[in-house]
Amino acid sequence: MINDIIRYTTRSKALKKLTMKLTNLKAFISTNLKAFIGIVCVFLIFIIAQTSQVSAISVKELLGLKKATPDTTENKMGLSSKKSNVLDNTEWAKSSEKVSASGRQINLDYVTLLLNNIEKQEREKLLADKELFKQVIENEANNLSTVSAAIANNLIEDRDIEFMMRRGSENIMREVYIKRLISSKLPKDFPSDEQVAEYFASNKKQFLIPERVHVWQIFFKKTSSSDKKREALNKKIEEIISDIKKGEKDFSNIALAQSEHEQSKTLGGYMGLLKTNELIPEMKDPILKLNEGDISQVIETEAGMHILKRGKLLESETLELSQVDQQIRQLLVKQANKQLRDAIFNQARKEYPQAISDNKLEEWRLGLQTNRE
Q: What's the structural domain count of the chain?
């Protein structure tokens, strides 16, 4: 009996505690209902955002590809109803039309043609390296597949794209045609040693290096202000010349600190190795009269006031044939290529004329100008 009373009392206390907890929970929910609902909404939005990887814009529309066929219709999130993650969806690049893969499958013939049209050194490098060879072929496979997708989605029906494709292929054909014609017309040993020697003998002036001299300067701009300022500038220049000649100051240091010729001052006044026949008269005669290492008196030109220092004078010389042999060969090949190229264009225009007149050109120009306006 006593045990039954104890059990009843214990249960009553537990029930009373549980009742109090439920009452408190009810009061909390009632008081914070709006906040509770807000937390739940935020949690649901977070879950949706984590599971949705793309925007409402269709990936296929973004890429300009055709929409999917009915059995893979895209849902409101822009994904195929079959899959929810664009990274896992391999259907989006498919076309609604079945396209024959004929001519766009990579095979031995394609790879052979590819290797035949690259430089020998690169070709040997590819064949010697298993991984590099695989990488190149995989890249080609990617390119072919992408072109197939573009064709399947009727990209070539765009007139502008079709024109640029045709023009690009025609440009390649033209250059290959011209290269082959020139190669067939030019002897393999062109230019010969005799042709190089003949050109050198006939054009020795091109290979004459004229007299040159190293020149430094300290430069001051002319002042258009008062006579006193001009006199002060002249006095300053005379003092600089005197200090340099006495060895009290260094020419390059003064040029760095005071010269107003930006290009040369950073080099301590150095103007470079100048051709004497290209020096202006006001500077040519004074510089040639100086000995190496000497400085001039002030020299006035239209630009301003100059103090010049002469460096080593290099006499004119004619280069030897051995020094310019390769230069002449490159020049002769370039000239021959241009002459043959012009001849090919002229012959082609005669055999396959294009009817173009000045009147027609002006008519086209004005018409296009009006249309664009």
A: 3
